[in-house]
Amino acid sequence: MAVQNRIDDTLLVREAQRGNRSAFEELVRHYDQAVLRLALHLTGSEHEAQDIYQEAFLKAYKNLGRFRFECSFYTWIYRIVTNLCLDNIRKKQVRKEDAPVATDAEGEVYDVLAQVADKRSGADPERDLMRRELGGKIAQALEKLTPRERMVFELKHYQGLKLRTVGEMLNTTEETAKNTLFRATQKLRSALAEMR
Amino acid sequence: MKCEWVQQNVVLYVYDELPDDARHELEQHVARCATCMAEVRAVKNFRTDLAPFSVQEPSPNFLTDSRMKLQEALESAEQGGWWSRLVFEPMNWLQQIRFAPALTAAIFIVGFAGGIGATYKMGKGRGTEELISKPAPAALSSVSGVSSIAQQPGSDQVTIKYDTIVPQQHTGSFNDPEVQQLLLYAARNNFNAGVRMDSVNLLTQQPNNQHVREALLYALRYDSNTGVRLKALNGLGPYVKDDVQVRDAVLEALMSDTNPGVRVEALRLLDPVRADSSVRIVLQRLAQKDENRYIRSQARAMIAQLPEMN
């Protein structure tokens, strides 16, 4: 299936490079759900996730003429998205924002972790509270990672990508991605142990 | 296998990133080492502990809203046109192959040497003082323009800045980095197909160099001359098995190259990897509906040699 997608993407990219807008929109549909999911989990904000999503695909559209198939379109679009997400994380770290509180597309403030807990724990309020607390601790621990560690951990642990692919997306080697994952895991384990 | 190594690699093991042999060794070690077994359990528990902060799928409404907003934005966005490619692409090439510093250095060295040589010849029979104070002007035929003229106050000395266009040549071993840079440049930029053919021909002798391989991939995909594409294809042939980028490029050539000869050659090169799933899919397509009868029949023959997939 992945291989079939790769071939389809190549044909679609070629069409889009010739100016076919529908071909580009088809490409968008191949990846937009994954892009939105990644941005949403990293930013914790629908509004910011939508901004990243839009900026990423607009950049891809404007620069498609210069795409030379040196990597797959999948890697290329993820590279754009991860760069935008890294910028977002860096800005947040500078601003020291409260991560769990976020705003949705309508500007309403809501608690990201509360939403996570509600969906998973059903009608058990005690379990729900525990999950919420634990979710908050994890979010705090994740904030202690450097932006790059956060990104490698996100792409590996949450998005399930291979470290070789992660390396390509972040313009680094598989070995560096492995070391970064190791560091991120160690930091998270000790941060979570301290919080217990 | 030492416990230290296991501790360093247990994360990769739990995230399924260890090669099979290392994985096997680690499992063997863990089976008889309680400390390492505990570490493996701890990392597995850590993974499970993170479940409360799991990834949520974007809601259908949110996805639709995002798609609509993107469509609106695309209406007013413009793709980079030919002019922007013209402006930016040469810069990209230069950046990619790190050409600019090397070319500048090469021009500087050759120009400097040429200047000394010319000064020496013209200065024969004159005093050293004269040589230094009156450097020989460049031949007028090589002057492309005068950029500034300034007279020094209170004297008859005039300083003229001019640009020159002088054909240069560089001779060196194929392993000479400057020679390689110039070949890479010629492979992508020269208007003369014969020169491109010569440079691609020489580059195929060193496809292990990453820049060279990129240049060959570029030639295969974009060169307008069939001979150059064929030459690049042959240079890439030995790497079809191990390099996915090369395999993809050869598959592309097989599917969409305008020349049947290039396509047939691509088909031949893919024969050793015909069992690869990407190759299999393309072969099935070609066998069903390719316009070229020979390619259709060859694709069928290659599929017939494949083991049945369950």
Short description:
Chain A has 196 residues and is mostly helical. Chain A has helices at residues 2-17, 21-43, 46-63, 73-95, 112-121, 125-143, 147-158, 163-169, 174-195, and strands at residues 101-103, 109-111. Chain A has 9 helices and 2 strands.
Write the layout of secondary structure elements.
The complex is a heterodimer of chains A (196) and B (310).
Chain A (H helix, E strand, L loop, with lengths): L1 H16 L3 H23 L2 H18 L9 H23 L5 E3 L5 E3 H10 L3 H19 L3 H12 L4 H7 L4 H22 L1
Antiparallel strand pairs in A: 1-2
Helix pairs in contact in A: 1-2, 2-3, 2-4, 3-4, 5-6, 6-9, 7-9, 8-9
Chain B lengths: L2 H12 L5 H12 L2 H16 L10 H17 L5 H15 L2 H24 L5 H6 L9 E9 L6 E7 L12 H13 L3 H11 L6 H13 L3 H11 L7 H13 L3 H10 L7 H13 L3 H12 L6
Antiparallel strand pairs in B: 1-2
Helix pairs in contact in B: 1-2, 1-3, 6-8, 8-9, 8-10, 9-11, 10-11, 11-13, 12-13, 12-14, 14-15
